[in-house]
Amino acid sequence: MVCILIAYLVKTGRREALRPVWMGIALAVVLSFAFGAALQFGSETLTFKAQEALGGSLSIIAVGLVTWMVFWMRRTARHLKKELHGKLDAALRMGTMALVVTAFLSVGREGLETALFIWTAAQSADDGVRPLVGALLGLLTAVALGWLFYRGAVRINLAKFFTWTGGMLVVVAAGVLAYGFHDLQEADVLPGLTSQAFDISAQIPADSWYGTLLKGILNFQPDPTVLQVTVWALYLIPTLLFFFAPGRVSPNRATPAASPSDRVAPKEPEPHDTQVAVPGARHTDVGSGGDGDTERVHDGARREGDAAGGVEG
Q1: Which one of 56, 195, 199, 312 is separated from 72 by 20 to 30 angstroms, measured CA to CA?
Q2: What pLDDT, on a 0 to 100 scale, did the predictor assign at position 127?
């Protein structure tokens, strides 16, 4: 989104508007970091059960936000650039403050969702370092890809990009949702904490490198409860089927189908036009394309003009 906004201003020669746009982006980033810090340090003063209840509730909210986001991005991917350009044009007409607000809202919404999702993932991993390192690497990758996209070195098909990244996010969100329900079970909000669906800790130890990798990426747990597995399956399977179902992407608004009212009106006949019928000329006078046909058309046009002007007598 940042690349689309900045590239549009540069290409249209409106570099003076870059400062308020960057200001709005900076405010959105600061708000996202402040929200993440409030989640982290605010939860440390709570009791264990209150922390688990808060973490579980926020995990469910984060999954809801991410699910809404991936479906929205999938649906609007083809005309996202045009939509942002339209908002930016409207903000340019309104003034500097409107530019700041436009950039702030465009980035801030995604920033808050990202902060919440990273916090819930870090809570479920019980490791405050490695999830943050992964988040930092992801942000640096996004910055690098954004710069290449802006310079024209990389061209991205937004429809395909959001389809596959959205599908992967749905898989990750399923793990976060399952762990959120586990937190609620530990907080005694939901029952069934001791009812395990299976236990494969011997085959996939939680402290092994592959167990840690599965935990960090998919929130995999080798000894989940029955409720966790049920919630995971009930969310993942229908959501993926609905997400990849045909017709989930809106048609390109830039090329709407032509309506009957948009059709080009027939050309009005001109006296010098040899390819259209002239009032007063016979149908046999037009169409063969020969020299004789051309003369008869001009004769018909002259006769029509004489009749309209009258003859002096």
Answers
A1: 56
A2: 63
